[in-house]
Design the sequence.
């Protein structure tokens, strides 16, 4: 018999999905009009793990009809993942609210 694994909960931040693919993190859902893309530009080793340094934050449209270059609405570089996620959450909240 095959055993069923317990379904893993998706990682969320402020009740929105957070997905990681390599050095890129996506905050929000592709069902939204906008999404936040964060790319870790550099990291430093700390014991047996890596700590992010500079992180590129971009507020982007999710519409596949728009070219990749034109999808970027806002972008910024932040020091550390927490700062990047913090500003990204603010940008996404405001964009989805229409402000």
Sequence:
């Amino acid at each position: 018999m095959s055993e069923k694994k317990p379904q893993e909960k998706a990682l969320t931040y402020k009740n929105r999905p957070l997905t990681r693919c390599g050095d890129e993190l996506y905050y929000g859902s592709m069902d939204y009009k906008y999404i936040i893309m964060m790319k870790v530009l550099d990291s430093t080793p700390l014991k047996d793990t890596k700590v992010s340094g500079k992180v590129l934050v971009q507020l982007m449209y999710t519409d596949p009809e728009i070219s990749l270059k034109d999808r970027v609405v806002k972008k910024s570089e932040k020091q550390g993942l927490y700062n990047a996620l913090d500003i990204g959450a603010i940008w996404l909240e405001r964009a989805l609210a229409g402000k």
Observations:
- The chain has a mean pLDDT of 89.
- The first helix runs from residue 68 to 71.
- The radius of gyration is 15 Å.
